[in-house]
Amino acid sequence: MNDTVLSLRDFRVSFPTVNGPVQAVRGVDLDVSQGEMVGVVGESGSGKSVTFLGLMGLLPRTTIIEGSATVHGKELVGQNSKQLRSVRGKKIAMIFQDPLSALNPVHKIGRQIVEMIQAHENITKKAAHVKAVELLDIVGIPQPDQRAHQYPHEFSGGMRQRVMIAMAIANEPEVLIADEPTTALDVTVQAQILDVMQRIQHELRTAIVLITHDLGVVARVVDRVQVMYAGRAVERGTVDDLFVRASHPYTRGLLDSLPALGRERLVPIQGSPPNMLQPPPGCAFAPRCRHAQPECVLELPELRPFGAGETACIRAEEIAVEVAGV
Amino acid sequence: MSDKLLEVTNLVKTFEVRRANGIRVERASVQAVAGVSFDAEEGQTVGLVGESGSGKTTVGRCLLRLLEPTSGSVVYKGQELVGMHRNELRDLRKEIQIVFQDPYASLDPKRTVGDAIAEPFEIQKVKGDHKKMVGDLLELVGLAPDHAQRFPHEFSGGQRQRIGIARALALRPSLIVLDEPVSALDVSIQAGVVNLLEDLQEELGVAYIFIAHDLSVVRHISDVVAVMYLGKLVEVAPAEEIYERPSHPYTQALLSAVPEPDPALERQRQRVMLEGEVPSPINPPSGCRFRTRCPKAQDICAAEEPLLIERGQGHPVACHFADDTPVVVGDVSFERPVL
User: Fold this and answer.
1) Helix (H, G, I), strand (E, B) or coil at B224
2) In chain B, which residues have their Cβ closer than 8 Å to the Cβ of A194?
3) Residue B336: its chain A contacts at CB < 8 A?
4) What share of chain A is helix, strand, coil (3-state, %, to 5)?
């Protein structure tokens, strides 16, 4: 499984404001292999969406993007919009939480998919239409040849998200970024969409990055997880490892705050995330961490191997002992 | 104490809508709530769950008459609320309060938090030191009394939700309708608000109608859970019972669709996968409203509406074929032919 298609190195995103730059993403590394689904987890403001909007070139022009993001060795950072356009949709595609605002309300679904196919492929309209209908079938839309002639408002939320997935995979991209694709959907529909995404992962061998705040969704579908906090990765590992042996106090805090069977009392994380105008020099989670020691706030902790995964907690070993001792 | 605090009987709410039919606009009516009955006892939490369009929010608003019920009865402490005169209703509003989902939209950005919380005192002409009372309320929900001078934008989402709760508690209600109170919050913040609600119930004995789509939070906080589908209740049972032995096929499907934060469990779980989506409430299916998506549906389901009654499951279920062994349809594996 060492067929890396998407690779981020020291990736940084900041937004200039009158009060100075807001450092939304502060040096993130990530590798995603072919046919793998990686979950990127974090709460609002953790930088999980901004990282991927940034590498896709979908943030305002004034945004400062540094570091490296490559798809199959091709660098995305620093490319002009024309160069990016040839990559977006072809090599790397993205779907969003709200499919309605991503579709053009005045064009038929079929035509919108055809447009997507023709943007990257020299193909007749007729052949592209046949392909569009096939794509709608793949994502599980019943009567695809009739549905292709309908407008977005005639589709339900779940069906629109299927259409978005069909458009995203139209040019068989190597990487599909899914930003909270099921957050706006009901659970029974969410289950169907996750099913479609897993089929794409396994059958088309597409690498999928699933950005979500829902740890249940992560447990169900992803292979590996990267947990983000205040613009940094704090923990990385296989999904089994992370849920059983979370090494970072933030990850553990997230898991403890979920309602679970036999859990009489939920355990919230005290305090709130730091101001990203002046992120703390050390571990950003330290002010909210029960295990924090003076040394935690001195230096920015890097991800390092720990157990079967990686952690950015400098006290992971001691905390593991402390927690086991309780 | 197990007195009936609230008795809802056959509650119906119909909305008139216009819809396009070709170039004509025709009137139609949507039965958002189509005959819902349930009780709540003092100090208890009733969880009302369902997907979008199930009518759970409409039920909540009808209980306070923020929406006027089309028919049916809502009896609070022996008094019929439906049809009650406005003046009388205003007195009763002291006792029934509501907290909304969006803590950003439910607070006036131009008023201080203290003013927002004190407003119920002014409307109800409550005597006493309002400033002190506001301070006490803020402390009760885990904020500081001097926060009263600040404006809503100075608070985070979780803090705003606490302010909404403080305002709802101002008049010491016996019942609070909580309409998705934690769904806009991050999980680590959500846990704190859920704990607060539990503490307040313990301390003040207030009853909750907890409306939510997040089934794990509902399980955690509720004593009784009522499941809604397309304007009807399909199953009502004590929380543990409904999660351990769901008997309606919809409840089974809904519960099995919720992903649990446990990868090992997720892999071996069997699911009731539902096909399709909720039909339009403008033209709901005849008989059982769930039959179009139900794996168990038979002819009788289209002909005869199943009543919400005890069917040998220990709690009421609205299904002709209620059974606590789930029907597992298919498997989430990748067997459908593709490409």
Assistant:
1) strand
2) 259
3) 140, 199
4) 35, 25, 40
Confidence class of residue B333 from pLDDT cuts 50, 70 and 90? very low
pLDDT for B331: 42
Distance CA A232, CA A31 (A): 15
| Beta bridge partner(s), residue B15 | B30
Ordered structural domains, chain B, with CATH: 4-246 (3.40.50.300)
ipTM: 0.84
Secondary structure of residue B71 in the 3-state scheme? strand
Cα–Cα distance for residue pair B306/B287, rounded to 1 Å: 7
pLDDT of A2: 60
| Least confident segment among A42-46, A210-214, B102-106 | B102-106
Structural domains of chain A in order of their starting residue, each with its CATH number: 4-222 (3.40.50.300), 228-325 (no CATH)
User: For B334, which of A187, A202, A260 is closest by C-beta distance?
Assistant: A202
pLDDT in tens, B82-94: 999 999 998 888 9
Average pLDDT over residues B243-272: 88
Nearest-by-CA chain A residue for B252: A188
Q: Which of chain B's residues have a Cβ under 8 Å away from the Cβ of A263? A: 220
Query: Tokens 């029974």, residue?
Result: A188
Those residues with Cβ within 8 angstroms of residue B285's Cβ, 6 or more apart along the chain or in another chain: B279, B291, B292, B302
Q: Where are the alpha helices (DSSP H) in chain A?
A: 48-55, 81-87, 99-102, 109-120, 125-138, 144-147, 157-168, 187-203, 215-221, 239-244, 249-256, 316-325
| Site from A139, A188, A242 to mutate, B interface, most B CB atoms within 10 angstroms | A188
Q: Which of A201, A208, A159, A158 is nearest to A183 (CA)?
A: A158
Residue A231 gets the label, from left (phi > 0), alpha (psi -120 to 50) or beta, of left
Return the closest-CA partner of residue B241 out of B268, B267, B222: B222
Share of chain A above pLDDT 90, in %: 83
